[in-house]
Amino acid sequence: MTKELTICYYQSRENTPYYAIQARRRVNISHAGKVRLYGGKNLRKTVLILIILLILAALAVIIATAILPNLTGNGVKPVVTIEIGGEVPPAETFLQKPGETAEYETDITGLDLSRIGDIPLTIIYKGDPVDVTLRVADTTKPEATIREQYIIIGETLAAEAFVIEIIDATEVTVTYKRAPDFTRPGAQNVTIILEDQGGNKTEKSAQLLIYGITPMLQAEAGTIEIFPQHFLIEPSGIDLRPIPIDVSFERGVTQSQLASPGEYDVTIRANGLQFNSVVKVADTAPPVAMAVDRSLWLGKTAEPSYFITNAYDASEYSVRFKTDPDFTNPGTQVITVILEDIWGNAAEVTSSLVIMEDDLPPVINGVVNQTIFIGDTISYRNGVTAVDNVDGEVEYTIDSSAVNPRRVGTYNVTYSASDSSGNTATRTVTLSVVELTYDMVYALADEVLASIIRPDMDPVEKVRRIQRWVNSSITYAGYRDRETLRAAYAGLRSRHGNCFTYYAVSEVLLTRAGIDNMRITRVGGRTNHFWNLVNVGTGWYHYDATPIMSTLNLYMFTSVDAVAYTRRITANTIYTNYYVYDRSLYPPIVGDDELYGDESEDLVDDDIDDGSITYFPGN
Ligand SMILES: [Ca+2]
Ligand SMILES: [Ca+2]
Ligand SMILES: [Ca+2]
């Protein structure tokens, strides 16, 4: 028997020594009647059953301990679970029955309840210390605020980026449930998983919006500017301003490139990534222009551009009539102008044209009835113009065939002017030719004399006053007439003239004042000069009313004075022979004796016509 048992022991000890020992003990117990039971094969079977029974027993103990702890033992719950971050519960929490009291033996101040784990505590219950466990657990799911995310294609994003604020007592990990497809532009739903230290999970939905970059951007020629944002392909349904992508040109397009059709490479930087794209500039827009309604006089024509304004196109363009206007047809017509750019884009601009007939003749201005003296030059055109409402200033004709300027009478003069439309205007005025008589001139002269002299005056005073009046009243100006009566009349009427006028007016006034006088004329000078000789009964003296710079008494001066003045002015100025004259034509003048004695030699010889030589005795 013993030998068998020993064998049993040794056979079993290798794998299950414990159960083998137990088996031996039991064998010993039942040694009296059932020894045979443990022989060989039967022994092993029995041990196996025992083992199973023991396992079942152990499991029962474990289950009892886990599920029914509170129902067993001493009325104390061995474990109490609280949420992390909470407070230590009252010691009674560990008791089975309500109404009983307990207290902590462990010092619970300063316990860290912010970490998951078991905290061993001791309570006093019914006077005895009992060890219990306070279990700190995280059973609350994490919470978080989720936001959308915008990226450019090629970027990636961690799941954390979608989470703004996590609320949980423990640390939370954020992961994608499934990684987004970052290579696909557009909108994607992503699921974010939040997991706390207690293993509690929360799933959140978020939107991932992936912008793309267009490989080619079309631009109309003449576009002022293209911005890098234009190259972004926005995720469907998204139109955000400002765009949540940091985008700029690394290489853009110039304005001149935008003006001329073609393809231009650009490089765009978006969120730090570089993208190549192309701007394709095309002119697809027709020219634009504003219509201008016009009116034209019949017979006038105009270019197509006359009917438009503010025309524009990015490219060169032409302008033409859709149908040529009929400029010969009075009334209103529709004008259609076609503007076409070099790319074939065309636009039509419609305006109107009114063709007006001109039925107004020119207006002839400045024609007046005239009176002239026989021999006067007739000025038909002085101050006369013809102006037409359409043609502006036009030519005019004068029919003066009826006029005989050498015969006293009144004649018709007709002016005619026509415009380009054939409207003609005529105006007829009269030209009176009259004879200038001494009476007419003397009437003017007497009027002057009445205001400057009295009949009872000394003749010398009369001469002096006449000279002073002519000298100061007549303004020096050009005058061509060499006829004394006409020059005097003109001088008295107009108060201006040249030295012939001064002479002639003086002659008429002196004559009417009863002073003997005659004309005297320069010879040998570069210019002509005329002055007077006067005789008040004391011999002939020079008299000159033409203004000169001299201290002479110009109303009566002698030949000696005349020679002295001539010498002086010849030396200092361009004048030569100022008072040189043909002595043979005039009576002796006061001073001649002193100059010439009884010489009979004529001052004027063959050389005098030269004008450059001054002839004076002893010179
Ligand atoms: Ca939690
Ligand atoms: Ca165009
Ligand atoms: Ca007209």
Overview of the molecule:
By secondary structure, this protein is an alpha+beta fold. It has 7 domains: 2-67; 69-137, Sandwich (Immunoglobulin-like), CATH 2.60.40.10; 143-210, Immunoglobulin-like (Sandwich), CATH 2.60.40.10; 214-282, Sandwich (Immunoglobulin-like), CATH 2.60.40; 288-356, Immunoglobulins (Immunoglobulin-like, Sandwich), CATH 2.60.40; 363-434, Sandwich (Immunoglobulin-like), CATH 2.60.40; 438-610, C8orf32 fold (Roll), CATH 3.10.620. The protein is built from 10 helices and 33 strands. The strands form 10 sheets. Strands 6, 8, 9, 10 and 12 form a 5-stranded mixed β-sheet that branches. The N and C termini lie far apart (202 Å). Residues 283, 285-287, 313-315, 341, 345 line the site of one calcium ion.
- CA(first)-CA(last) distance: 202 Å
Low-pLDDT segments, ≥5 res:
1-39, 600-619
How much of the sequence is in beta strands? 25-35%
How many domain modules? 7
CATH class membership of the largest domain: Alpha Beta
Shape: elongated
Helix/strand structural class: alpha+beta
Helical fraction equals 10-25%
Number of helices: 10
CATH topology of the largest domain: C8orf32 fold
Count the E strands: 33
